[in-house]
Each structure stands twice: as structure tokens, then as C-alpha cells.
Amino acid sequence: MRTSPVWNPQQYSKYADERGRPFADLVARIRADEPSTVFDLGCGPGNLTATLLDRWPTATVRGVDSSQEMIDEAQPLSTERLSFEVGDLREWTAEPESVDVIVTNATLQWIPEQLDLLPGFVRALKPGGWLAIQIPGNGNAPSHAILRELAATDPYAEFAKDKSLRPDVPAPAEYVAALSAEGCTVDAWETTYSHILQGENAVLEWVKGTGARPVLQSLSDELRERFEAEYGARLDVAYPRQGFGTVLPFRRIFAVAQKGS
Ligand SMILES: C[S@@+](CC[C@H](N)C(=O)[O-])C[C@H]1O[C@@H](n2cnc3c(N)ncnc32)[C@H](O)[C@@H]1O
């Protein structure tokens, strides 16, 4: 099985409140009444997956993630109705027409061929079932543009040049087209949140938990320290700290699809 580079659940969870907001906004648009089988694909540390138990009190909820570290973090949250397993979404399958709801939050951006996975997800849904997707659409924001630019310069380029996330992710309309072609009714939109982050080097701390991870992990300790100092200084200029905190504008793309009955 293919695995993704090592995730650090503690670093990722530093801004749990801000990271949880789009998940809540996504799930609010799923109008399933009493689903019995719910999957969270790319569940991460499982804290958001666990909120689905209250949302659907009769459902069994299963979280899947390719990172052993994330699943280890999630396991203590397991209950009779909630379980977690390691698995790669590129290989994930379920019995056709066996699942009521699939949620995949902040994950498909890591899979360049993500649109090819959608027919398999829809196939797994029961007629009338729901697929809910959220991905960051901030690949051209300064946080990522600076990361790519710096990673392509010496002495980092040799190790880090191709490690950045691709900036191009599907637009809402592309999800509409892809999921309509699978017989779904689709509601797709985008939102730019203005997260107010507290503390020093707040944006650096945020991206260290997600988008910058593959670049940073490609570098030796010495180079990583140097990279973080340069990257952090440039981020502080692009996202100045103010009296109330540091504003991080963050565009996100949503698609909620209901399979035809
Ligand atoms: C940014 S985290 C999101 C976690 C969680 N959904 C949340 O909203 O907090 C992205 C997650 O996607 C997982 N991931 C990346 N590629 C994956 C793949 N091919 N298969 C399964 N999980 C994957 C990572 O391990 C990571 O836990």
C-alpha cells in the first residue's frame, strides 16, 4: 500500500478550531436524515469525524486515512459506533450501494488524480446517498507562492523543488460537471475565510502542519531550520501581525452531491 509522508497530528491540531469550521459548514449542507453507514475519507486525527456521531445518532461512522500517525491519534476516540483504519483513498472501495454518506474534508488536494476517484465514491453510495467534499483553494495565496519560490532556489531546490502541493485544484464548476455526470444533484460553492491566528509566526505554524510539510521534510535538519527562518520572515511581511492577531485569508472549495434515487 502507498503511504503519504509523515504527518504530525500535534502540529496539525494547533489550529483545530479554525480547521474545524469548514468541516462544520460542509456537513451542514448534507441533508441525510437517518444514515446508517457514514465514511470520513482522509479523517486525520479523528476529532472532526467524532462530531458526526452527534449529527447522526443512529449511524456507524468509519474514518479512513493513509497516515499511520493520524490513525494512531484517532484510535482512542473509537466507540461502538466509531472506528478508524489505515487506507489509501486511491485504493478505497466499498460494496456498491452500501454507504449513506461519504465526507472527505481537506484531503483530496493531496491526490492529483482526485476527479478519477469520484465515480468510485458515487458507486459506493446507496441511491439518494450523499458525497461531501471540501478542499483548500489557496494554492496561489502568498503562503504557497512563497513556499514554491523558496523551495526552487538554492540550496533547497536539489531536495525540495517538486515537493510543493500543486496550485491547481478543481473549481466548484468542475465538481458540478464531474458529479452530475455520475447522476448526482450537486451544490458547489467557494468561501474565503478570514482566520485570525494568535501567536508569533502564526502563518508559518499553520502551514507547517499541512501544506509546507512535504517541503520541510525533504530537507536536512540544518537546511530546514534555515528554510523556516527565511520562509517565516517572508510570511511575516505578507501576513503582518496586528493587535488582534494575524489575518490568514483562506479560500476553500465545497461540493455536496446527492446520488439519484
Ligand atoms: C489536512 S488533513 C485533513 C484531516 C481531516 N479530514 C480534517 O479535516 O481535519 C489531510 C489528511 O489526508 C490524508 N491523506 C492524504 N492523502 C491520502 C490518501 N491518498 N489516502 C488517504 N488519506 C490521505 C492525510 O494523511 C491527512 O490526514
Structural account:
- The protein has 261 residues and is of the alpha/beta class.
- Helix content is 37%, strand content 25%.
- Strands 1, 2, 3, 4, 5, 6, 7 and 8 form an 8-stranded mixed sheet that branches.
- Strand 4, helix 5 and strand 5 form a beta-alpha-beta unit.
- The relative contact order is 0.16.
- The structure holds S-adenosylmethionine (SAM).
- S-adenosylmethionine binds next to helix 2.
Summarize the structure.
The chain is an alpha/beta fold and 261 residues long. It contains eleven helices and eight strands. Strands 1, 2, 3, 4, 5, 6, 7 and 8 form an eight-stranded mixed β-sheet that branches.
Present the secondary structure layout:
Blueprint: H1 9-12, H2 16-27, E1 37-41, H3 47-55, E2 60-65, H4 68-74, E3 82-86, E4 99-105, H5 114-124, E5 125-136, H6 142-151, H7 157-160, H8 172-180, E6 184-197, H9 202-208, H10 213-217, H11 221-238, E7 241-242, E8 245-259
Parallel strand pairs: 1-2, 1-4, 2-3, 4-5
Antiparallel strand pairs: 5-8, 6-8, 7-8
The structure holds S-adenosylmethionine.
